[in-house]
């Protein structure tokens, strides 16, 4: 089976050896089964097989035990005898222990190289899904992204988006005339969701240097494909962040990789563990996006494998595109369970030797019901399969060994230092500072103008006394004038003391206050 990845088979009560043909590996696949039935081991042996064939792999380590791919199995392992016995039963004659080239990644930068993208690259649709926004809030987010494009505002990290939303809120009256209603309540709701995401550690996803897809598609010096392991045990505490990140990565692969048609082997195989998180409460637009990616990304040479407990977790339109399947045991305790079991069995090509529904219910741990694409991409007949044992270590490696592998990685040092490039936050902050300076200058100029006006008015009200003439005639005239003036003043005072005078005063003062 040089052109296939050996999965298992053989032995009493089992069919022929089962293998996943490399030329059909980009037709996607499914690994399903109840908890504890062996899904993780199946994922591990498939990753080993692809790596050995020179195909890079990306997978998420949800439970924290897939790091063992980086270490060889050992005869001292407690299941060694069982592994050797199983290898003999299924005719796995060249079974041996070996390690595989692994690159560790971690969104939080703790158990692997930091993995980031920019806000602009993720886009409004996925960010709306991540933040669980309403339709109105998603509309405002789309306006914000449109404005960022029009005004040359790079959106790299969360503070860029937060600053842009502040600007949108402050200018909502003007923007609403062009783009539709923008309510301050909706802007505030988006800001609160961003704050929650930031508190959950989601801010570490956004920034630079952003992940280069080429770093996920490396091969080792001996030609084996590198297995990229995303530490997801902590990330699962924010399941929507986990699902959105993986969907973004799929979308980036779809958009950036060139068309290759049907290659002899995939350029990359992508395992999406806990796939139900992608579809739980997902809006139709998002499900349609996943269906489009699944349908078209195979032409980019990428195979996508969904891992979940029940095939019913995957929408029917997407499930129909998953040609390579490994179905572990399903439990059927309720009427609903029995219905889902029956539906799962109906998706396989019948084998006259056994009842598929009964086989899915009865297979034990490490066994599975399998079907892989055969010649011309036709689904193979379903078979009961004894899954082969892994060659790498079963279980996690210790922290010291992980750290040594991270330090020796081909991308060591490339993503560790966060960069804070000039972007929307800095641009909008400078605009605000410039506007504040202009407002301050205008206010100062206005105050100076008011002060000058007050001084001018005060100058107009001022009049100095005339200089007295020194001639005797003038002195006499002034003396007579003063006498006449004093006489008139005395007469006026006397008159004002009377009734008529009081009426005159009230008239004058009333006129003044009325004029006020």
UniProtKB/TrEMBL annotation:
UniProt xrefs under SUPFAM superfamilies: P-loop containing nucleoside triphosphate hydrolases
Helicase HerA-like C-terminal domain ranges (all copies): 14-512
Stretches for region Disordered: 457-483
Source organism, top-level taxon: Bacteria
InterPro entries: HerA_C (IPR033186), P-loop_NTPase (IPR027417), T4SS_component (IPR051162)
PANTHER family: SLR6007 PROTEIN (PTHR30121:SF6), UNCHARACTERIZED PROTEIN YJGR-RELATED (PTHR30121)
The protein's name: DUF853 family protein
């Amino acid at each position: 089976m040089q052109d296939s990845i050996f999965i298992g088979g053989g032995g009493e009560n089992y069919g022929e050896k089962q293998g996943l043909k490399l030329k059909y590996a980009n037709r996607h696949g499914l690994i399903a089964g109840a908890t504890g039935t062996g899904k993780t081991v199946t994922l591990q042996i498939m990753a080993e097989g692809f790596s050995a064939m020179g195909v890079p792999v990306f997978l998420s380590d949800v439970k924290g035990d897939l790091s063992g791919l980086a270490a060889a199995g050992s005869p001292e392992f407690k299941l060694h005898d069982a592994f050797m016995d199983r290898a003999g039963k299924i005719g796995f004659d060249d079974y041996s222990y070996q390690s595989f080239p692994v690159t560790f990644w971690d969104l939080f930068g703790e158990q692997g190289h930091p993995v980031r993208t920019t806000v602009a690259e993720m886009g409004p649709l996925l960010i709306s899904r991540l933040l669980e926004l309403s339709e109105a809030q998603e509309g405002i987010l789309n306006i914000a992204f449109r404005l960022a494009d029009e005004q040359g505002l790079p959106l790299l990290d969360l503070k860029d988006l937060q600053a842009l939303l502040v600007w949108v809120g402050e200018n909502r009256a003007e923007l609403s005339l062009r783009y539709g209603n923008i309510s301050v309540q909706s802007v505030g709701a988006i800001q609160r969701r961003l704050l929650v995401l930031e508190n959950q550690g989601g801010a570490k996803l956004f920034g630079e240097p952003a992940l280069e897809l080429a770093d996920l598609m490396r091969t080792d010096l001996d030609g084996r494909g590198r297995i990229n392991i995303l530490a997801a045990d902590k990330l699962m505490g924010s399941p929507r962040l986990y699902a959105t990140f993986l969907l973004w990565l799929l979308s980036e692969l779809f958009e950036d990789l060139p068309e290759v048609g049907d290659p002899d082997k995939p350029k990359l195989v992508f395992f999406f563990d806990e796939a139900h998180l992608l579809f739980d409460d997902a809006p139709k637009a998002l499900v349609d996006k996943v269906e489009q990616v699944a349908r078209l990304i195979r032409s980019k040479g990428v195979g996508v494998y969904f891992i979940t407990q029940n095939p019913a977790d995957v929408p029917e339109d997407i499930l129909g595109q998953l040609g390579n399947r490994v179905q572990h045991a399903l439990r059927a305790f309720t009427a609903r369970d029995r219905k889902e079991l029956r539906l799962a069995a109906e998706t396989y090509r019948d084998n006259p030797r056994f009842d598929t529904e009964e086989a899915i219910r009865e297979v034990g741990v490490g066994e599975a019901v399998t079907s892989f694409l055969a010649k011309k991409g036709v689904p193979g007949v379903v078979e009961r399969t004894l899954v082969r044992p892994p060659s790498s270590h079963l279980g996690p490696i210790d922290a010291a060994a992980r750290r040594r592998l991270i330090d020796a990685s081909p991308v060591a040092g490339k993503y560790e230092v966060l960069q804070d490039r000039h972007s929307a936050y800095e641009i909008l902050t400078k605009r605000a500072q410039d506007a504040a300076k202009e407002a301050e200058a205008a206010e100062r100029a206005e105050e100076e103008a008011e002060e000058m006006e007050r001084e001018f008015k005060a100058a107009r009200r001022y009049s100095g006394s005339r200089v007295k003439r020194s001639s005797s005639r003038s002195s006499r005239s002034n003396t007579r004038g003063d006498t006449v003036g004093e006489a008139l003043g005395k007469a006026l005072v006397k008159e004002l003391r009377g009734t008529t005078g009081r009426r005159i005063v009230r008239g004058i003062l009333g006129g003044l206050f009325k004029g006020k």
